[in-house]
User: Which sequence fits this backbone?
């Protein structure tokens, strides 16, 4: 990833060097996910599109764009549009602003008139969203409204129903209510982004009247960056956890030199308060399923003493893995990733030392170590980076930290067994394997976008696509949950099979790396064969498409009893399994509830 596109970035540099940056991004050895993105604009959007492309390429997403004509967002959405229909968008972004409000209240208007104006604006946009959702069944991103660049009534503009500030605030709340009640609809918080940038500069009317941009041209990278963060989150490219330094990162001072009593943390001085606030910020991420680990050059006893400090907000139990030793940090980082079965690039490295950041990112390609600045800037620089942008949120997310801790208990428990089969049996595993159900649609879509290592076909699905497949008789769908004596692992495996004549063609087979080598893949295979038999199918066709991340499943179908029938120069393989009426279940360990 290019550092020029990581927050904090130089927007002027990005705007002036966009062609060179695009060329560099395309020359990188990256396997891009290709997506069609439609931009329906209420003002000029050409540079928004160009800069959005850069940020998406930096996330490994190669976009193709449909861009509406100037201020034709309503027409493109509501009326028949052959060009947009043929484009088949994967994402639709509606780029509007307060310049697109049809009519604001007048001071003489009654309360009923103001309510009517509000309802008219709300209904106009709901008609857009409902029409797009029905036609294209893809995620929709909608700007909310930034505050007006002048207040006719001064401060009373916020509280009086006739004020533009009041009107826009109420309209934003209507947008939020819609988002809360409609899946695959996302708000781009233009109100916050513009305030963060500086509303006076953001809304400079020169750019609207000269170029018909609804914002300062120099602010475009900040808007495009936020849109890119929503899109990369939808397609499962968020980070999954923090790997954190300790000295001068979680507290002030060097604990090995200063001693635990003299590190800077807590309410006694201003700098200590800032470190405490940063620790609280990190701890809040656990609620989102973001995992925390430590990678510190320290004696372990000193590290634990710091976490046991009475003013520390973070404690040993908040971390999935703690590496406090004198090994190189890149080596510790790799071990942390291996222990929790994640790719190193899934984790964000936070360290105050630029030399350590450089070593880790050089030795572990794809890992990001943001420039965090001074301690009072840590939260801002990490938070604005959008590494953990939330678009979907499932019950499994809230339990993720506990799931990884339970995995550590399993690993410790395994060490007490000489025989691996005896260990698996002792876990008392129960698998719940069923066709897709509404309650798990969000998690299934999330898993399809996040799984990289155990992903045979590398297909990615949005939630509307998952829902459409689940309701289609031509598909076999299966999800698998795994529960054992240490806890519930949640939904960990997904299969989508396409029925063609007497064949089942596997479009997707994924599994969470949390449950590798637990025989869940055999239980899923048994259930797939059973469903194929019930549907009168005689063969199952499997496909493996290699990437830089999924080599671990190169021979997966062979282990399941498939025979290879073709392989091309790129390593893409096709396999076949003939369904025998006397098929014997492969899973001998997991008790399956179907």
Assistant:
């Amino acid at each position: 990833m290019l550092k020029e596109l990581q927050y904090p970035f130089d927007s002027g540099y990005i705007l002036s060097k966009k062609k060179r940056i695009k060329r560099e991004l395309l020359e990188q050895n990256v396997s891009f996910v290709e997506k069609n993105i439609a931009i329906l604009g209420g003002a000029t959007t050409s540079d928004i599109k160009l800069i959005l492309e850069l940020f998406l390429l930096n996330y490994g997403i190669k976009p193709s764009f449909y861009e509406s004509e100037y201020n034709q967002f309503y027409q493109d959405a509501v009326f028949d549009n052959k060009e947009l229909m043929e484009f088949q968008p994967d994402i639709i972004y509606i780029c509007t602003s307060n310049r697109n409000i049809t009519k604001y209240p007048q001071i003489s208007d009654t309360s009923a008139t103001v309510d009517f104006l509000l309802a008219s604006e709300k209904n106009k946009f709901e008609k857009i969203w409902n029409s797009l959702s029905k036609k294209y069944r893809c995620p929709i991103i909608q700007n909310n409204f930034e505050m007006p660049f002048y207040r006719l009534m001064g401060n009373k503009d916020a509280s009086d129903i006739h004020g533009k500030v009041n009107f826009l605030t109420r309209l934003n709340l209507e947008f939020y209510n819609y988002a809360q009640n409609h899946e695959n609809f996302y708000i781009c918080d233009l109100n916050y982004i513009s305030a963060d940038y500086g509303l006076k500069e953001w809304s400079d009317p020169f750019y609207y009247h000269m170029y018909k941009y609804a914002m300062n041209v120099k602010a475009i990278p900040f808007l495009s960056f936020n849109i890119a963060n929503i899109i990369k989150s939808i397609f499962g490219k968020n980070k999954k956890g923090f790997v954190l330094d300790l000295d001068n990162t979680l507290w002030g001072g060097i604990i090995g030199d200063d001693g635990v009593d003299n590190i800077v943390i807590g309410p006694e001085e201003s700098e200590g308060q800032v470190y405490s606030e940063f620790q609280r910020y990190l701890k809040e991420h656990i609620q989102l399923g973001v995992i925390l680990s430590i990678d510190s050059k320290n004696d372990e006893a000193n590290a634990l003493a710091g976490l046991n400090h009475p003013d520390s907000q973070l404690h040993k139990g908040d971390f999935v893995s703690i590496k406090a030793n004198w090994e190189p940090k890149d080596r510790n980082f790799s071990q942390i990733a291996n222990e929790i079965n994640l790719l190193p690039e899934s984790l964000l490295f936070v360290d105050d030392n630029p030399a350590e950041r450089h070593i880790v990112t050089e030795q572990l390609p794809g890992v990001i170590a943001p420039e965090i600045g001074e301690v009072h800037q840590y939260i801002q620089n990490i938070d604005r980076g959008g590494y953990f942008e939330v678009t979907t949120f499932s019950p499994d997310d809230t339990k993720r930290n506990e799931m990884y801790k339970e995995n550590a208990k399993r690993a410790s428990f395994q060490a007490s067994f000489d025989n691996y089969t005896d260990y698996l049996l002792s876990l008392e595993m129960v698998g719940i394997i069923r066709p897709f159900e509404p309650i798990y649609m969000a998690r299934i879509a999330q898993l399809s976008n996040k799984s990289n290592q155990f992903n045979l076909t590398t297909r990615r699905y949005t939630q509307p696509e998952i829902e459409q497949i689940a309701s289609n008789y031509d598909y076999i769908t299966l999800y698998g949950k795994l529960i054992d004596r240490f806890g519930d692992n949640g939904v960990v495996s997904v299969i989508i099979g396409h029925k063609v004549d007497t064949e089942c063609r596997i479009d997707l087979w994924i599994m969470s790396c949390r449950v590798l080598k637990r025989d869940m893949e055999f239980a899923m295979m048994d259930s797939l064969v059973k469903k194929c038999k019930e549907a009168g199918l005689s063969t199952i066709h499997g496909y493996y498409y290699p990437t830089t991340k999924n080599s671990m499943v190169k021979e997966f179908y062979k282990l399941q009893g498939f025979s290879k029938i073709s392989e091309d120069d790129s390593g893409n393989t096709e396999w076949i399994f003939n369904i025998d009426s006397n098929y014997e279940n492969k899973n001998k360990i997991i008790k399956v509830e179907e």
The radius of gyration is 26 Å. The mean pLDDT is 94. DSSP finds 24 helices and 17 strands in the chain.
